């Protein structure tokens, strides 16, 4: 049973990790604890709770920058931004329902997992909004990187290195992020009754149009029927969606143009702000659209033009799924009682894209996550580079050992 460590500030985090490094004691980093079920199972000597590192330390709306303790709740930050009509443009998803937890996610956890929602294809990933950090390496050495503006990021951009490292390189103690104005108006155009391949073609055309769309998704009929939005739920067929955001007159013009473009393909409908927000939250948060709370959930990143073919192959043994990012992101729910207990469908899912993409096991029982590669296996050259980076930051392998791969 791991013992709990409760540092009260960044200085104590440094002291505790320096001691752990010197003693070769392994440590699990815990922020809000909302993503404990994401990644491989971690077994350590100690759990280092970072919850004391909370609070917004700097927020300058006119400069579009915010700095906060890494354990500051995302909800607190989003509420503060909303008062100034600003947002985290990468649209971080909330996987609380996916993991069956009410624990609040933290800004440090979102950045460490590099999570982004439907707006990623326009605004970029979480790492693209990560301006600066203070942290403590697995050597027990405090360090900082970046600054309050992009032009201050000189030398090695450690923010992008830490984004997606899942706490295997360092404990983040403070982070600085770029914020952006919230859109004045939001509209979503719906296209009905398209099969997967036709929907991906329609989304590709919309993405390549001059209408500056901010999100594109396709929900097969069984998935669409689970939406809380009546136009989507009651369609009785597949629903393809495109979102337009920005100044009011511009949104109206672009929405009308997309309605004409998609209207040549089939029946269309339009969602205004409230229902648009509900639909895209469902798409981002995943769990509301998946039919089985016990299903094994996979996330696949593929070439959009191959999305329909990959989905068909990955669901060959049953299950359900939908498309985000114009077909480049596939969410799959595989029935646990019909999938091999040995790999949770890993062979089937990863075999479906033949190396032209990557797949992450987003939800599964502990014994499954302990026995399969949760994250996409890396080629030997990339694995060797990752090992050298790991050795530079955490030579004794004390931080979240095994969280991402067997070696780290």
Description:
The protein has 408 residues and is an alpha+beta fold. The chain folds into 3 domains: 1-182 and 378-408, Uridine Diphospho-n-acetylenolpyruvylglucosamine Reductase, domain 3 (2-Layer Sandwich); 185-285, Alpha-Beta Plaits (2-Layer Sandwich), CATH 3.30.70.2190; 290-371, Alpha-Beta Plaits (2-Layer Sandwich). The chain is built from 15 helices and 18 strands. It has helices at 10-23, 74-83, 96-99, 107-113, 120-123, 158-162, 196-207, 221-224, 230-233, 248-263, 273-285, 307-314, 346-352, 366-371, 380-393, and strands at residues 3-5, 27-30, 46-49, 56-60, 65-69, 86-87, 130-137, 142-146, 170-178, 180-181, 185-192, 213-219, 239-246, 268-271, 296-302, 320-324, 329-334, 357-363. The strands form 5 sheets. Strands 4-5-9-7-8 form a 5-stranded antiparallel sheet. It has a 4-stranded antiparallel sheet with strand order 12-13-11-14. It has a 4-stranded antiparallel sheet with strand order 16-17-15-18, covered by helices on one side. α12 runs antiparallel to α13 (346-352). The model has no long low-confidence stretch (mean pLDDT 94).
Strand and helix layout:
Blueprint (H helix, E strand, L loop, with lengths): L2 E3 L4 H14 L3 E4 L15 E4 L6 E5 L4 E5 L4 H10 L2 E2 L8 H4 L7 H7 L6 H4 L6 E8 L4 E5 L11 H5 L7 E9 L1 E2 L3 E8 L3 H12 L5 E7 L1 H4 L5 H4 L5 E8 L1 H16 L4 E4 L1 H13 L10 E7 L4 H8 L5 E5 L4 E6 L11 H7 L4 E7 L2 H6 L8 H14 L15
Parallel strand pairs: 1-3, 2-3
Antiparallel strand pairs: 4-5, 5-9, 6-10, 7-8, 7-9, 11-13, 11-14, 12-13, 15-17, 15-18, 16-17
Helix pairs in contact: 12-13
């Amino acid at each position: 049973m791991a013992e709990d460590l409760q540092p009260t500030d960044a200085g104590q985090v440094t002291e505790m990790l320096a001691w752990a490094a010197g003693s070769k004691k392994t440590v699990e980093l815990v922020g809000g604890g909302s993503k404990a079920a994401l990644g491989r199972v971690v077994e350590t000597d100690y759990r280092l709770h970072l919850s004391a590192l909370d609070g917004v330390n700097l927020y300058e709306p006119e400069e579009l920058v915010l700095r906060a303790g890494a354990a500051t709740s995302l909800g607190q930050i989003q509420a503060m931004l909303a008062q100034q009509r600003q947002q985290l443009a990468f649209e971080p998803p909330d996987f609380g329902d996916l993991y069956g937890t009410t624990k609040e996610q933290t800004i440090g956890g979102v950045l460490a997992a590099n999570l982004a929602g439907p707006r990623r294809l326009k605004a970029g990933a979480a790492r693209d909004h990560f301006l600066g950090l203070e942290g403590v390496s697995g050597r027990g050495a405090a360090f900082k990187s970046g600054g309050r503006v992009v032009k201050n990021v000189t030398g090695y951009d450690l923010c992008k290195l830490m984004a997606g490292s899942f706490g295997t390189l360092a404990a983040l103690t403070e982070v600085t992020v770029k914020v952006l104005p919230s859109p004045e108006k939001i509209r979503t155009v719906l296209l009905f009754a398209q099969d997967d391949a036709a929907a991906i073609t329609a989304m590709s055309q919309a993405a390549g149009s001059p209408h500056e769309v901010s999100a594109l998704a396709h929900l097969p009929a069984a998935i669409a029927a689970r939406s809380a939005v009546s136009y989507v739920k009651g369609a009785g067929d597949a629903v393809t969606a495109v979102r337009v955001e920005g100044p009011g007159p511009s949104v109206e013009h672009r929405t009308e143009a997309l309605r004409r473009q998609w209207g040549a393909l089939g029946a269309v409908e339009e969602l205004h702000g409230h229902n648009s927000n509900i639909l895209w939250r469902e798409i981002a948060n995943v769990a509301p659209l998946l039919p089985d709370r016990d299903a094994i959930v996979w996330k696949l990143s593929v070439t959009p033009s191959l999305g329909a073919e990959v989905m068909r192959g990955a669901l060959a043994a049953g299950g359900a799924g939908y498309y985000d990012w114009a077909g480049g992101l596939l969410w799959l729910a595989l029935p646990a009682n019909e999938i091999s207990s040995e790999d949770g469908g890993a062979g089937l899912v990863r075999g479906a894209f033949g190396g032209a993409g990557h797949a992450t096991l987003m939800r599964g029982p502990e014994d499954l996550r302990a026995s399969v590669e949760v994250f996409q296996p890396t080629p030997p050259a990339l694995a060797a580079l990752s090992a050298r980076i790991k050795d530079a930051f955490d030579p004794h392998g004390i931080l979240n050992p095994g969280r991402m791969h067997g070696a780290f």
